[in-house]
Amino acid sequence: MRSLSLSLTGIVAVWLLLDLWRLWTPSLITIFGRAAETPPEIMGLFALAVMTVPLIVAACLPPSGPRLAAWLVAAAFAVRIVLRMNTTGGDVQLYGSSLGVILTVTALCVCAGSLGRALVPSVFLGVATSAGTHAMLGGFGAVWRSDGWDIALLVVQAVLVGTALSGALRPLPMDCSPVAARTGVLLFPMLLIVLLALSDVGRASTIDAVWGPSVVVLGAGAAAVVALLPAPRRRPWGAAVLFAGSAALSLLPETTSVAAAGGLTPWALIAFAVGPAAASRLLLFAGPGRSARRTAVAAGAGAVLWTALFFAYYAGYDLGYRADAVLVATCVLMAAWVLAYRPGGSVGDAQTRASEQRMDDSGARAVAGVAVATVVATGLAAIAPAVTIPAVPATAQAGDGLTVAAYNLRMGYGENGTFDPIGVAEQIRASGARVVLLSEVDRGWLLNGGQDQLAILSRMLGMQAVFGPAGDQIWGDAILTDLPLSDVSKTRYPMFDALTGAGITAATVTWDDRPVRILATHLQPDGNETDATVRQAQLFADALGAGDGAVIGGGDLNTTRGSDAWRALLASGEQDAFADASDQPEIDHLLVSGLTAENAEVIDSPLSDHPMIVATFR
Fold first, then answer.
1. Ramachandran assignment for 566, one of left (phi > 0), alpha (psi -120 to 50 degrees), beta (any other)
2. Are 269 and 212 within 8 A, CB to CB?
3. Which end of the chain, N or C, is less surrounded by CB atoms within 10 Å?
4. Where are the domains of the chain?
5. In this structure, which topology does domain 2-386 adopt according to CATH?
6. pLDDT tens digits, 564-589
7. CATH 3.40.50.2300 applies to domain 390-617
């Protein structure tokens, strides 16, 4: 029972931490950061402070081990319940999720010093559980839901927390050796790589809505199985190569898919399948440690490194350096540090290491059980999203005209910092739009919770999706439509002065037996409509004027009427769909040629920091 309770403590700690990270990291951007109003340095310092607290706690508290870890997990679960009851987001979400992250990270630091050989399989079982449940929910995270599905998962977590706590309250057995301090330091940075690049359901769904998430679940489960196997006897060169290579395969290649909704290259499926298992093999190699407190403090230091790597990666999109290459280089350094370990030590250490290299009958049963659970979870991940993603029925009758909407989704997060795709889908339905041009579409950034916003909306609305990468493979612009679709194309703009990234996503829809060319973009500002914005506007104007027949283009153009960029756009021959409207949008626009615009309106909503603009064309 002791080994089971210890494992449950680690498993639930990881599962809860990943849930809380889905709340916390978007809250840093939308609530604390206030959509770039707060200087990024201040936001980074706040995040660093949160992730430094566990290091201080681990250094100050006595190594009370599993009992303390179980109580910390129970406290984090109580915070999770409070956050579930909070429906308004805001400061409760920001500071509540910050507290939950502190508790769960601290619990994992304590686990690093007390779980011994059970640490690595516990961590990867937690990752596999999180990936499996996230995939079963179609990438629509349980932390953002208020239906029976999230309640069911909370009940499961409550049972596991209670079991772990009851086991930890029993008399403690003879202490087991902690993992090496080296493993503690690597725990959180390795977890970051796995979550960001190798076990992200959102990223995987950009390859295929069924196969992508299924392979992620299979790979995460395989990592848990591998973590239960005996530790490597020799330096794991193969695991080191596979780990760094998988990260490179997932992060570095440009999009090659010509499919309408494509994102990552299909080769990334290999990375999802083998990368997590390679990571678990590397963490197993360092062997036993000498001090529970030393290992716990090392894990706390690793949490600080997690924060530095996390912000170093996402800062690259604003500062202009290859953030993906930085992360791959970090993987190489971590693998090299593991390979530099030299087994040795006292006779007792050697005996402990030898015991880790054997597997008894209970270990074999555990491997078989996790393998079976992985197969079952993979199957559920493939079929469950059709049931767990709610369909949003039409609420407006389609008229004789073609209704088109343009909407900057702010990566799915409203002004109160909550993720509400159902509200967005209902707003689109109410507008009667048959074509929707979307800006700031996030398809799996860990920063925003690892959710494929486009796939979720596409399922809810029953619309086809066209995705155009801009910032990277999984962030950009999109078109949603229920009309026949053809001639899909995606073109990236050149980088101007370290902009986040922009491009043109285009497709032809057939409406009233005639083709209508649709172009979506998100022009990135550099200062206040300076030369970079004008050059992007000129590229978009060239694309608008390149075709014959009816053309509708627009999105978040970051351009005001009368500016140089606005004049460049109108030079294409397009007309402003809101030219005669009583309420005109500020920087979001729809431009048209070959059709006449009418009934143009601006729809304000707390679901984004931009209004949705809608016009009907005939």
1. alpha
2. yes
3. N
4. 2-386, 390-617
5. Growth Hormone; Chain: A; (1.20.1250)
6. 999 999 998 999 999 989 899 999 99
7. no
